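== Item description ==
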Amino acid sequence: MNRQQDFIKDLSTVTRRVCLYFPETIAPVEEAFLWNVSLTPEQTDEYLAHGWRHVSWYFYRNSCSNCRRCLPIRVPVDQFKPSKSQRRVLKKNVETEFKMFKPVEFALKHIKQSLSLYNRFLDIRYDRTPRDLGEYYNEYFVSPAQTLVSALFINGELVGNGFLDLGKTSLSTIYFAFDPRFSSFSPGTFSILKEIEWASQNSLRYYYLGYYICEISAMRYKGLFRPFELLDFETGQWKETESDISEAEPRNVKPKIKRWSS
């Protein structure tokens, strides 16, 4: 049983809304707003261990009792071994530069290029309207938790960057976007591999990937980073597995609101 304190639950309410992943389902989503709060690294570990996700000040948990198809997933860092295909991605990116930044440092150096890249990603992948600079900053650079920005450079050009929460023992990806022109380099997979490597180098225990949904191809890829653990909302226990938990046919579904789909 997970004995860490679920402190966000005490601050949360339940809102019934159309599910982002399964529109035929009305999802009772747990939600909380942590305005003007600074979380300790230990508190970040706690909320991640209980399956919470967030965008800026908004925290949510898809622990819907009528569904249970969104399962929090994490990788035990010291057990991870890249697969053969993942090793090929590393080899393909031997000249790709990976860097970690504090948010302010990244914003000062790269925020305009990052926003341009992000909007191209939204347009081509999800046919979404572009964000302006203020929206982008408030969504990803403002957080009650300590955050980091990972960035990929090819020949000095920013080609992808992601936002992560950093706890005492945990690293959690929030969102990653890349320039679609560089899709052949598999930047999404490469960034995860390098972030897990960074977590290992910094003696972290877990790397959180958000929600694993085996029926949706866009969310199922997370099960390729093995071994991984899935949170059982019924017991509060994380259970280790090395393979997909279901043979269900994947659905080619795009979440209606990508900002919540982590």
Notes: Residues 72-262 form a domain with the Aminopeptidase fold (CATH 3.40.630.30). Confidence is low (pLDDT under 50) at residues 246-262. Helices lie at 41-49, 84-92, 103-126, 133-140, 187-201, 217-220. DSSP finds six helices and twelve strands in the chain.
